[in-house]
Design goal:
mainly alpha
Length: 163
């Protein structure tokens, strides 16, 4: 019941932990899928529907031992390694696998790198993950992020109208 205290606690927070872009992408795929756990999605072959996913990240795939993540701790070896560099490579490969699977299912994949902390290698990864090179957006700030979403919306609208 204390707004000032709540805002103070929120402002004291800082982002910590690992980034696993592949997991967000995989859950997006599941939502679009007609199979469990979300069965509301129409069939991939339904000619009346286009499916699209937007994968947005503000960071590079990482795995560190200081914070427990979806894969546990780095030292647990759940990605087949205890090396942060090798774990990052594995996370990148898993993201590419998810993107390939979505594209093979006919899903249009858009990717957005938001912020200025995205490494060149991650930008290249996101571009490869997107359905086309033009489906990747570099958005270092809120203005370019808004423009990216407008461009995606316009493309999807155009796709819908052309059918």
């Amino acid at each position: 019941n204390d707004r000032t205290l709540l805002e103070s606690e929120i402002n004291a927070m800082s982002p910590l932990g690992s980034t696993h872009i592949n997991l967000g992408a995989a859950w997006g795929w599941r939502v679009l899928s007609p199979q469990a756990p979300f069965t509301q999605g129409t069939s991939y072959s339904d000619p009346d529907w286009n499916k699209a996913a937007i994968i947005l990240t503000d960071g590079d795939n990482t795995m560190i031992d200081s914070f427990y993540s979806a894969y546990g701790l780095l030292s647990d070896g759940n990605l087949g390694t205890t090396s942060s560099t090798t774990a990052k490579n594995e996370l990148n490969n898993r993201l590419l696998d998810v993107c390939t699977g979505m594209k093979n299912d006919g899903i249009i994949v858009y990717t957005i790198a938001f912020g200025t902390s995205i490494a060149t290698a991650t930008a290249t990864l996101l571009e490869a993950c997107a359905s086309t090179p033009n489906s990747y957006y570099d958005s270092p700030d809120a203005t370019t992020l808004s423009l990216a979403f407008r461009a995606i919306g316009a493309e999807l609208k155009s796709l819908h109208l052309s059918q």
